[in-house]
Structure formats: C-alpha cells, structure tokens
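Entry 14. Structure prediction run on the chain below.
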Amino acid sequence: NGHDVPDERNAGIEPAENALAFAVAIGATFLARNMIQAGWRVALDRDPPKNPSSHEVQWRDALLWGAVSGALVGITRIASRRASSSAYRSLRS
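Output returned:
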C-alpha cells in the first residue's frame, strides 16, 4: 500500500536517540582506531601507515591497513549505534 515504506533514512528514530547514537559511535570509533593501531604495532613491530595513499607506503601495507581498519571501524560504528539505540529505547519504555 506504500504507507509502510519509510521516506526518511532514520525514520522512527527520535532526535535525542540519534544524537546519543552518534556520540557513542564517535567515541567507539576513536577507541577502535587506537586499538587497531596498537594491534598493528604488536603484530608487525612498526607503526601503521599514516597516509596509505603515499608512494612511500608499500602496496601490501596500504591495502592491509585499508581493509582491516575500514572493516573494523565500520563494524564498530554499526554495533555501537545499534547498541546505544537499543539502550535508549529500553530506558524510554
């Protein structure tokens, strides 16, 4: 019938819930990046590339860093936003 299709990206999410989810995601992303960098240092005994697109960074390191950090940061953002939204909704009910 067309009425069940949301016309907004975050339909049904209150502004306060969205703000909380955003703030939690920023903090979780910061922590995840620091943990990924520390893990890189431990595993490879060197600093991760600061600028993976630099010609001074080997392709292997650039691709590995992009894949690992991109995937883990993405997962962290999604998980933190969903967790904070769930917590917000359970507190509101």
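The chain has a mean pLDDT of 89.
Filed with the rest of this week's runs.
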